UniProtKB/TrEMBL annotation:
Coiled coil: none annotated. Its main location: membrane. It comes from the Eukaryota. The chain crosses the membrane at residues 36-63, 75-93, 105-124, 131-150, 170-192, 204-224, 322-340, 346-370, 382-405. This is Equilibrative nucleotide transporter 3. It is found in: Membrane. InterPro entries: Eqnu_transpt. GO terms for molecular function: nucleoside transmembrane transporter activity. Keywords: Membrane, Transmembrane, Transmembrane helix, Transport. It is a multi-pass membrane protein. Belongs to the SLC29A/ENT transporter (TC 2.A.57) family. The keyword Membrane applies. One of its GO terms (cellular component) is plasma membrane.
Amino acid sequence: MRSVFSNSRNYHHLTEEAAMTTADSIGSPTRLQGKLFAMVVCFILGLGSLVAWSSMLTISDYYYKLFPKYHPARVLTLVYQPFALGTIAILAHTEAKSDTRQRNITGYILFFLSTLALLVLDLATSGKGGIGNYIGICVIVAAFGVADAHVEGGMVGDLSLMCPDFMQSFLAGLAAAGALSSALRLITKAAFEKSANGLRKGVMLFLAISTFFEFLCIFLYAYIFPKLPIVKYYRTKAASEGSKTVSADLAAAGIQTEGSKGGEDDDQQQQILSKKQLLFQNIDYALDLYALVLIAMYNVWDLISRYIPVVECLKIKSRKGLMLAVLSRFLLIPAFYFTAKYGSQGWMIALVSFLGLTNGYLTVCVLTEAPKGYKGPEQNALGNLMVLFLLGGIFSGVALDWLWLIGSHEQF
């Protein structure tokens, strides 16, 4: 029997036939080898999905030094979001016909090239400011937005076909990106603090590390993840339910799928819910995400909270319960107002910590519960719709962020 998966140390061997036999015999892939390793890979892929953009935000002190009059933190964010939102809207509309493997690999490659371009641009210009360099950075940031739409929507749709643990690990990786970026930035900044032109040297090292992470994600997704037995199980199952988006991934794993006969395929396609039907059936989840992402918090509490749903008794599974929990977060708006006006710094720290705690926890609960009960193609489509609303909420928050100019004496 032919082995279809072996990790770097050749610890795990499982033949394709044995994997499918195991899955059929127990009705669940929980015993298939590779689940823990797959969760680690999903965490790293989640990290790579946001580390590039987190890097941009983390080195804002450097860009404010180069471009003090151009408000880089706000302008670059405003450049990023329309490209991310527009791209995910197009991809969500065409997801049923798209190649998920090609989409995700394209996204990670674009992340890699864009992060590398930031490094090359700074080296080529010797760290000088000016409108030309600023426009170049804006173009790269727009590429980040396109890459984000490819990867985040594609990965959420892909992982929606699989066990919730993979989705949870991916989302935890997203949260960890901010914490890791902050930690690396502090380390690199401290390492060159006393040297000549130390701020720029720290940024260069930081961008080099981020570029390496993106390259690692390309390798893991293209060559390691599709060959894991448990991943092949879920993708084979999705293909049997009519999913066309997993064909390239199965081919990369050495599994060829045969198309159904015309009549059977047409009947199966008619049984698959349309995006409009999926949206109406899950509009409460979409609104949940919209409310959640108005204020995005990627900090330590956000990261910790994404592991709370791993404990089943602590996970909210009820739609009504999730809706109530999300709507109750609107009370944070007056809470922040009165805390900022009358409260002490300690109360504000506690309130922000609670914001991050609820953000990560509810995000994992919604994205892992929403796909349950649907067929493979529907789960993929629903995952893309959820990310569309996620990015829509982020874009709204970014746009509203400019309200700070109202009543301000500062000029743009």
